[in-house]
UniProtKB/TrEMBL annotation:
Organism: Croceivirga thetidis
Protein name: Aminotransferase class I/II-fold pyridoxal phosphate-dependent enzyme
Transferase in keyword set: yes
Upper classification of the organism: Bacteria, Pseudomonadati, Bacteroidota, Flavobacteriia, Flavobacteriales
Aminotransferase class I/classII large domain location: 25-373
Xref: SUPFAM superfamilies: PLP-dependent transferases (SSF53383)
Entries under NCBIfam families matching the protein: PRK09082.1 (NF006569)
Length: 377
């Protein structure tokens, strides 16, 4: 048997989590909260179950939820997506990303990916016969636009962008999106925009959704996640929005990947979104988490620049040790009982900037335990 993914084994998340469980480490590695879901949202799911929304949803998703998503995007970003033929509910954003890539990438198509990158992008391209063209971000995780222009070719079919950015917590600026718009102006390149952390942007900054930019939006698919937004990652509920002609191709694949997704949760989210505060207040909520964590570790030997978005914080450890980040992350688990994610695994050619990623979407009690350990290193 010949593997279609010969170089893919267990992800770093699986490896680190297994080690963290074995050593009973404080786990700030994986990107999911360890605090309770809003009881109101649980109540709405219960209501949906009792009202009998327990069979297949429409392939495109519950229509009321699609309408609500359309209203939300137009209110926030000024672009109208039609709920009938430009929005699809998915089994999480990862499925949306896989489906978008599968719908458009064929043998020998080139896909530009900015590194470090979420680890689901590359395998999805490879499975569809595409070729990865990596563009390494600068050390501060901003884009080198000259490197991007150099990476473009006649075979470039898609570019994948991600803001707020996992794993770095950086965000794209208005200038970045305008630059992308100019560079792609005369090219037939599709943009896949991963915006799962759109409601986690800090310090008064603005999320620059691709939807804000008409010339980019007409060539783009946007993927989003209710799991990340409302800290219900186990529900695996996300969505994709795109112009009609792109969404038609997306849905051709979607119907054979999952057909339809989680009906009662869709009904609950549709009702929950009607109160805008349920997502507009998240920036402040997570910024407080970030600030609490950074204040707690300020006496440590780690250095950092506060994350601009997501619920991840990079910590620089070069003043502590010269160890490769994978070795140091492993030793932090075995010797100190704290788990994080090494960043080199997401970089082109494993570039190691001596950075570890910590998730601060945790209870204050968990963050206190983590800080006590980090301050002692």
């Amino acid at each position: 048997m010949t593997s279609k993914l010969p170089n893919v084994g267990h992800s770093i998340f699986t490896t680190i989590s297994q080690l963290a469980n074995e050593y009973k480490a404080v786990n700030l590695s994986q990107g999911f909260p360890n605090f309770d879901v809003d009881p109101k949202l649980i109540e709405l799911v219960s209501e949906a179950l009792k009202k009998g929304h327990n069979q297949y949803a429409p392939m495109q998703g519950d229509f009321e939820l699609r309408e609500t998503i359309a209203q939300k995007i137009e209110s926030l970003y000024g672009r109208a997506y039609h709920p009938v033929n430009e929005i699809t509910l998915t089994a999480g954003a990862t499925q949306a990303i896989f489906t978008a890539i599968s719908a458009f990438i064929k043998s020998d198509d080139e896909v530009i990916i900015f590194k470090p990158a979420y680890d689901a992008y590359e395998p999805s391209v490879i499975l569809n016969g595409g070729k990865i063209v990596p563009v390494q971000l600068k050390k501060d995780h901003s884009i080198n636009w000259e490197s991007f222009k150099a990476a473009l070719s006649s075979k470039t079919k898609m570019v994948i962008i991600n803001s707020p950015h996992n794993p770095s917590g950086a965000i794209l600026s208005n200038a970045d999106l305008l630059e992308l718009e100019v560079i792609l102006k005369d090219r037939s390149v599709i943009v896949l925009s991963d915006e799962v952390y759109e409601h986690l942007v800090f310090d008064g900054q603005r999320h620059e959704s691709i939807a804000r930019y008409p010339e980019l939006a007409k060539r783009s698919l946007i993927c989003a996640s209710f799991g990340k937004t409302f800290h219900v990652t186990g529900w695996k509920l996300g969505y994709c929005v795109a112009p009609k002609e792109l969404m038609q191709e997306f849905q051709k694949v979607h119907q054979f990947v999952v057909f339809a997704v989680n009906h009662p949760m869709q009904k609950a989210i549709a009702n929950y979104l009607k109160n805008e505060e349920h997502y507009l207040q998240l920036n402040q909520f997570y910024q407080q988490k970030r600030d609490y964590f950074l204040e707690a570790i300020k006496s440590s030997r780690f250095t950092f620049s506060p994350a601009s978005g997501t619920y991840f914080q990079l910590l620089q450890y070069d003043k502590i040790t010269d160890e490769p980040d994978i070795e140091f992350a492993t030793r932090l688990i075995t010797d100190y009982k704290i788990a994080s994610i090494p960043i080199s695994v997401f970089n082109h050619n494993g570039i190691d900037h001596k950075q570890l990623r910590f998730c601060f979407a945790k209870t204050n009690q968990t963050l206190d335990k983590a800080a006590e350990i980090l301050n002692a290193i």
